[in-house]
Every structure is written in structure tokens, then in C-alpha cells.
Amino acid sequence: MVKIATFAKPETVRGNFSAEMSEKNERKKQHTIPKVYLKHFKIDNDLNRSYVYCIDFNGKKIEVQKKGFKDPIFKQKKFYNNPKFKDPFLIENVFGENFEPKYEKIMKVISNEEKIDEDIMSDLIFWLYISKMRSPYLREDLKDKMSWYFETYNSLNNISQTIEEKEEQAKYIDKYAREIHLSSFAEEEQVKKLYEIYVKTLSFKEWIVLKSSETLPFWTNDNPGFSINTNLESAIEKPFHFNLEMNSTSINCFVLSPKYCLLIKPFMGKTDFMLNKNLTYESASINQINLINYGVFYTKQRTLISNSSTLLNECVKTIK
């Protein structure tokens, strides 16, 4: 059986007052892209290997930048804090202590190109689930939808708002979107239901780890994981979904590192739909790598991330 993780309260870290204050200040700046994930895209020839290359599409200038793992571009203040818990930092603590350490164990198996056992498969599915649920994209998307609803309603009803009313509406939208997003982690029953959907959908599909070439690695973004749009009528305008689609026909991609990308797709021409406990490793074609990198570019929230400045510079040239 696939294990369901719960948000048990972590042990309190003890130390001197100065260390505790420093830790509290650091905890306020929370990674929205896990540091353990960023480490796999580190610049290999960098001396301390704690940097990545990235493009900030919200920046003043679209250019390749070198950023450390702790750079503010990868963090937001108190992003996962939830006042419903006695310790508002509980979700952040659980990510750091119970969730993120699993990635090194997963990548050790993938890097050695080994078969996966039930525990690794459970960890990998849970990584996919939490990675999508913690993404700032979900919160921003909900805010955009709510803003559109209010704007449409006001327009249809000829309602004119004052500056103060618009500001209050924006605060309400921000507060409500935050509460809905955090409920993905805070409500145990909801966590179980959503996670079970991931398990039931992904476990009965074919798992392939695609391997890139040394000259053309995979890149990633601040909203890792996407689905290829399999609806031919809408795929021209919207070739990729920003989320991992959970249906029988969905084709999901999650870049694990510059070398490896997990592809989860329906079994083709096979009648054996037994629980899939293994995956295969295949060298990706140039077309496959380009398709995945385009999907990553398309589904970014703000940032593209890579260990290759050459790859990102080519992207900048294409945009310009």
C-alpha cells in the first residue's frame, strides 16, 4: 500500500537565543522551489556548487543570471505559514524534515538507473503531489480566476468601484486564495483524497525516465511538472497544462534533473494494467528534449532554471 503522509509536529530545535533568532528569520523566507531540487541543477564547474543559472521573466531585463540556492527569487516570506496550527511554521518544517529528504533517496535510484521498489514509487508519487500542491502557481491561478469573476460581475452589473473598494477586494482575494491553497496541506482528509487520486491514476500508467544528451540537457522552472495537451482541438492554442492532469489519457512530464525527466503516459497497445512498479530508462531524441523543454518554458510561473548558461542564452536570443 502507498503510504499517506501526515503533518505531524516536528521536534523543536533548541539552541542559544541568537541562533534561534537567526533560524526564525530564515524560516520566514521559505523556499517555494525546494533547495534539494535546485541542487540537482547546480552549475557543475562552479567552485562551491551552490548556484544555478536562471532567467527571471518578471525582472526588468530578460537575461541569464547566476543565482544562489538561497536567493530571494526562490523564496517568499511566510508563504506556507498557517495560523490554524499552534506552530504557524508547521508546514514549512514538515517540508524540510519529512518531505524534501526523500528526493535524495529517489535520485540515488534514478541516477544509478535502477528499478524502483514500492517505497521509492510511493515517495516519487508523493513528491509529484506535494511539488504541484506547494507551487505558487496554484495560488496565483486562483487569484486570477477570482479577479476575473469579480471584474466580469461588476462589468455586467455596471458596478463602479472606488479605489478603497478595489483594495479591499484585492485583500479578500489574496486571503481566500491563500486559505484554499494551504488547505491542500492542512486538511488531512483533503490531503488523503487528492493524494489517492494521484496514486490511482499514476500507478496504472507506463513510467519512463528519459535521458537527455550532454549537449542538450533538460531545464526546469518554478512550477515543475506539466501535462501535454492530448485534445487536438485545443492543443494548438494551449499545448500544455500547468498542472499534472489526472485522467486516463493524460501524458505527464516532470524534469528530475538536467539529465533525467520522468514521463508517465498510458500504456499503448497493452492489455496488462497491473500496478506498475517498474520504470524503463530510454535515451531521449532531440525532438523529445525540445518538446519537454518547450513544455517547461510554457508552464513556468516566473523563472527558468538550468545548469547551462548556453541553453538559457539561446532562449533569450529566441525571445528577442
Please tell me about this protein's structure.
The chain is an alpha+beta fold. The chain has one domain (27-72, 84-319). It is built from 11 helices and 12 strands. It has helices spanning 17-28, 35-38, 90-99, 101-111, 118-133, 136-156, 163-186, 188-202, 232-235, 286-298, 309-319; strands spanning 29-31, 51-56, 64-68, 75-77, 206-211, 220-221, 226-228, 240-241, 251-255, 260-265, 280-283, 303-306. Strands 8-7-9-10-5-11 form a 6-stranded mixed β-sheet, with helices on one face. A hairpin with a 4-residue loop joins strand 9 (251-255) and strand 10 (260-265). Helix 7 (163-186) packs across helix 8 (188-202). The termini are far apart. Mean pLDDT is 88; it is low at 1-15, 17-22 and 271-275.
Could you list some keywords that capture this structure?
four-stranded antiparallel β-sheet, 44% helix, 11 helices, alpha+beta, six-stranded mixed β-sheet
> Which value, in Å, is the CA radius of gyration?
21 Å
- Total count of strands: 12
The low-confidence runs, each spanning 5 or more residues with pLDDT under 50, are 1-15, 17-22, 271-275
Q: What is the number of helical segments per DSSP (H or I, 4+ residues)?
A: 11
Q: What is the SS-derived class?
A: alpha+beta
Form type? globular
Give the proportion of residues in helices. 40-55%
Mean pLDDT: 88
Strand order of the largest sheet: 8-7-9-10-5-11
Give a quick account of the main beta sheet: strands, pairing sense, barrel closure: 6 strands, mixed
* Alpha carbon gap, first and last residue: 50 Å
* H/E series: HEHEEEHHHHHHEEEHEEEEHEH
Total number of distinct structural domains: 1
Q: In what range is the share of β-strand residues?
A: 15-25%
